[in-house]
Protein backbone atom coordinates (compact mmCIF):
# COMPACT_ATOMS: atom_id res chain seq x y z
CA UNK A 1 0.00 0.00 0.00
CA UNK A 2 1.29 3.46 -0.91
CA UNK A 3 1.17 6.00 1.93
CA UNK A 4 1.71 9.71 1.61
CA UNK A 5 1.85 11.93 4.70
CA UNK A 6 -0.56 14.83 4.04
CA UNK A 7 -1.88 16.15 7.38
CA UNK A 8 -3.68 19.13 5.81
CA UNK A 9 -6.13 16.72 4.18
CA UNK A 10 -7.80 16.28 7.59
CA UNK A 11 -9.81 19.41 6.77
CA UNK A 12 -11.36 17.50 3.85
CA UNK A 13 -12.01 14.40 5.96
CA UNK A 14 -13.66 16.37 8.78
CA UNK A 15 -15.58 18.83 6.58
CA UNK A 16 -19.32 19.28 6.90
CA UNK A 17 -20.89 16.80 4.48
CA UNK A 18 -23.35 19.47 3.36
CA UNK A 19 -20.65 22.07 2.69
CA UNK A 20 -20.41 21.02 -0.95
CA UNK A 21 -24.19 21.00 -1.43
CA UNK A 22 -24.26 24.62 -2.58
CA UNK A 23 -26.86 25.74 -5.03
CA UNK A 24 -25.35 27.09 -8.17
CA UNK A 25 -21.93 27.38 -9.70
CA UNK A 26 -19.06 27.40 -7.16
CA UNK A 27 -17.32 30.10 -9.25
CA UNK A 28 -20.39 32.28 -8.64
CA UNK A 29 -21.08 31.27 -5.03
CA UNK A 30 -17.55 31.52 -3.58
CA UNK A 31 -16.91 35.19 -4.53
CA UNK A 32 -20.24 36.18 -2.96
CA UNK A 33 -19.13 34.90 0.45
CA UNK A 34 -17.55 37.35 2.85
CA UNK A 35 -14.69 34.93 3.53
CA UNK A 36 -12.05 35.33 0.82
CA UNK A 37 -9.39 33.37 2.73
CA UNK A 38 -11.76 30.46 3.45
CA UNK A 39 -12.87 30.55 -0.20
CA UNK A 40 -9.16 30.70 -1.21
CA UNK A 41 -9.66 33.86 -3.30
CA UNK A 42 -6.32 35.68 -3.30
CA UNK A 43 -7.00 38.57 -5.70
CA UNK A 44 -9.89 40.44 -7.32
CA UNK A 45 -10.35 43.01 -10.06
CA UNK A 46 -13.41 44.78 -11.44
CA UNK A 47 -14.39 41.78 -13.59
CA UNK A 48 -12.37 38.74 -12.43
CA UNK A 49 -10.79 36.96 -9.49
CA UNK A 50 -7.99 34.48 -8.71
CA UNK A 51 -8.68 31.40 -6.61
CA UNK A 52 -6.42 28.59 -5.46
CA UNK A 53 -7.33 25.19 -6.86
CA UNK A 54 -8.38 22.93 -3.98
CA UNK A 55 -6.87 19.94 -5.80
CA UNK A 56 -3.68 21.44 -7.24
CA UNK A 57 -1.34 19.74 -9.68
CA UNK A 58 1.50 21.72 -8.07
CA UNK A 59 1.73 24.28 -5.24
CA UNK A 60 0.41 27.60 -6.52
CA UNK A 61 -2.07 26.07 -9.00
CA UNK A 62 -4.66 28.83 -9.38
CA UNK A 63 -7.58 29.66 -11.62
CA UNK A 64 -8.29 33.10 -13.08
CA UNK A 65 -12.06 33.40 -13.39
CA UNK A 66 -14.31 36.08 -14.89
CA UNK A 67 -17.11 37.21 -12.56
CA UNK A 68 -19.73 36.72 -15.24
CA UNK A 69 -21.19 33.21 -15.42
CA UNK A 70 -20.81 32.00 -18.99
CA UNK A 71 -19.47 28.95 -20.74
CA UNK A 72 -18.40 30.95 -23.81
CA UNK A 73 -15.42 33.30 -23.99
CA UNK A 74 -17.17 35.13 -26.83
CA UNK A 75 -20.01 36.13 -24.48
CA UNK A 76 -17.65 38.32 -22.41
CA UNK A 77 -17.34 42.02 -23.20
CA UNK A 78 -14.07 43.55 -24.38
CA UNK A 79 -13.61 45.09 -20.91
CA UNK A 80 -14.10 41.69 -19.25
CA UNK A 81 -11.69 39.97 -21.64
CA UNK A 82 -9.02 42.64 -21.18
CA UNK A 83 -9.43 42.54 -17.39
CA UNK A 84 -9.09 38.75 -17.42
CA UNK A 85 -5.96 38.91 -19.60
CA UNK A 86 -4.35 41.57 -17.39
CA UNK A 87 -5.17 39.55 -14.29
CA UNK A 88 -3.46 36.51 -15.84
CA UNK A 89 -0.31 38.60 -16.33
CA UNK A 90 -0.48 39.89 -12.75
CA UNK A 91 -1.04 36.34 -11.49
CA UNK A 92 2.03 35.05 -13.31
CA UNK A 93 4.01 37.94 -11.77
CA UNK A 94 2.69 37.03 -8.30
CA UNK A 95 3.47 33.33 -8.81
CA UNK A 96 7.02 34.17 -9.89
CA UNK A 97 7.52 36.49 -6.90
CA UNK A 98 5.98 34.10 -4.36
CA UNK A 99 7.16 30.71 -5.56
CA UNK A 100 9.96 31.23 -8.09
CA UNK A 101 8.85 28.57 -10.59
CA UNK A 102 10.93 27.72 -13.65
CA UNK A 103 7.83 28.10 -15.83
CA UNK A 104 4.03 28.25 -15.77
CA UNK A 105 1.49 26.15 -17.67
CA UNK A 106 -1.64 28.02 -18.75
CA UNK A 107 -4.69 26.11 -19.90
CA UNK A 108 -8.41 26.20 -20.51
CA UNK A 109 -10.80 23.27 -20.82
CA UNK A 110 -13.04 24.41 -23.67
CA UNK A 111 -16.04 22.47 -24.86
CA UNK A 112 -17.39 21.12 -21.60
CA UNK A 113 -16.76 17.75 -20.06
CA UNK A 114 -15.34 16.32 -23.29
CA UNK A 115 -12.39 18.70 -22.84
CA UNK A 116 -11.85 17.59 -19.25
CA UNK A 117 -13.48 20.53 -17.50
CA UNK A 118 -15.36 19.74 -14.30
CA UNK A 119 -17.10 23.15 -14.40
CA UNK A 120 -17.94 23.58 -18.05
CA UNK A 121 -20.48 26.39 -17.82
CA UNK A 122 -18.16 29.03 -16.26
CA UNK A 123 -15.02 29.71 -18.31
CA UNK A 124 -11.71 29.99 -16.46
CA UNK A 125 -7.97 29.74 -16.98
CA UNK A 126 -5.70 27.39 -15.01
CA UNK A 127 -2.18 28.61 -14.19
CA UNK A 128 0.12 25.89 -12.86
CA UNK A 129 3.66 26.73 -11.69
CA UNK A 130 6.28 24.27 -12.92
CA UNK A 131 9.81 23.48 -11.77
CA UNK A 132 12.53 21.60 -13.60
CA UNK A 133 12.31 18.05 -12.30
CA UNK A 134 8.89 18.46 -10.63
CA UNK A 135 7.80 15.22 -12.27
CA UNK A 136 9.62 12.29 -10.71
CA UNK A 137 9.02 8.60 -10.07
CA UNK A 138 6.01 9.18 -7.78
CA UNK A 139 3.48 10.25 -10.44
CA UNK A 140 5.15 8.31 -13.25
CA UNK A 141 5.52 4.92 -11.57
CA UNK A 142 3.62 5.23 -8.30
CA UNK A 143 0.59 7.05 -9.74
CA UNK A 144 0.86 9.37 -6.71
CA UNK A 145 1.37 13.14 -6.62
CA UNK A 146 3.16 14.64 -3.61
CA UNK A 147 2.33 18.25 -2.78
CA UNK A 148 5.03 19.91 -0.75
CA UNK A 149 3.06 22.86 0.65
CA UNK A 150 -0.30 23.24 2.41
CA UNK A 151 -2.92 25.44 0.70
CA UNK A 152 -2.96 27.93 3.60
CA UNK A 153 0.80 28.48 3.25
CA UNK A 154 0.48 28.93 -0.51
CA UNK A 155 -2.38 31.39 0.07
CA UNK A 156 -0.22 33.47 2.42
CA UNK A 157 2.70 33.60 -0.01
CA UNK A 158 0.53 34.51 -3.00
CA UNK A 159 -1.49 37.05 -1.03
CA UNK A 160 1.72 38.85 -0.05
CA UNK A 161 3.01 38.73 -3.63
CA UNK A 162 -0.26 40.16 -5.04
CA UNK A 163 -0.23 42.93 -2.39
CA UNK A 164 3.23 43.98 -3.56
CA UNK A 165 2.20 44.39 -7.22
CA UNK A 166 1.94 47.95 -8.59
CA UNK A 167 -1.72 47.33 -9.50
CA UNK A 168 -2.64 46.55 -5.87
CA UNK A 169 -5.10 49.02 -4.38
CA UNK A 170 -3.78 51.26 -1.59
CA UNK A 171 -4.40 50.24 2.03
CA UNK A 172 -4.72 52.38 5.21
CA UNK A 173 -3.99 55.95 4.23
CA UNK A 174 -1.88 55.84 1.11
CA UNK A 175 -0.92 52.28 2.13
CA UNK A 176 2.25 52.14 0.07
CA UNK A 177 5.90 51.89 0.98
CA UNK A 178 8.71 54.05 -0.46
CA UNK A 179 8.85 51.89 -3.60
CA UNK A 180 5.12 52.26 -4.18
CA UNK A 181 4.28 48.68 -3.14
CA UNK A 182 1.07 48.08 -1.19
CA UNK A 183 1.48 46.83 2.36
CA UNK A 184 -0.57 45.82 5.38
CA UNK A 185 -3.12 44.06 3.17
CA UNK A 186 -5.69 42.17 5.24
CA UNK A 187 -4.69 38.49 4.88
CA UNK A 188 -8.33 37.42 5.16
CA UNK A 189 -9.44 39.59 2.24
CA UNK A 190 -8.46 39.18 -1.39
CA UNK A 191 -6.02 41.75 -2.70
CA UNK A 192 -7.86 44.26 -4.89
CA UNK A 193 -6.05 45.02 -8.16
CA UNK A 194 -6.88 47.91 -10.44
CA UNK A 195 -5.52 48.19 -13.97
CA UNK A 196 -5.14 51.43 -15.89
CA UNK A 197 -7.23 51.60 -19.04
UniProtKB/TrEMBL annotation:
Signal peptide: none annotated. SUPFAM superfamilies: HIT-like. Residues 166-197 are annotated as: Disordered. GO terms for molecular function: catalytic activity; nucleotide binding. Keywords: Nucleotide-binding. A motif (Histidine triad motif) lies at residues 122-126. Residues 171-191 have a biased composition (Basic and acidic residues). Coiled coil: none annotated. It holds the Pfam family HIT. The keyword Nucleotide-binding applies. InterPro entries: AP-4-A_phosphorylase, FHIT, HIT-like, HIT-like_sf. The keyword Nucleotide-binding applies. PROSITE patterns: HIT_2. Residues 26-137 form the HIT domain. This is Bis(5'-nucleosidyl)-tetraphosphatase. It comes from Halobellus clavatus.
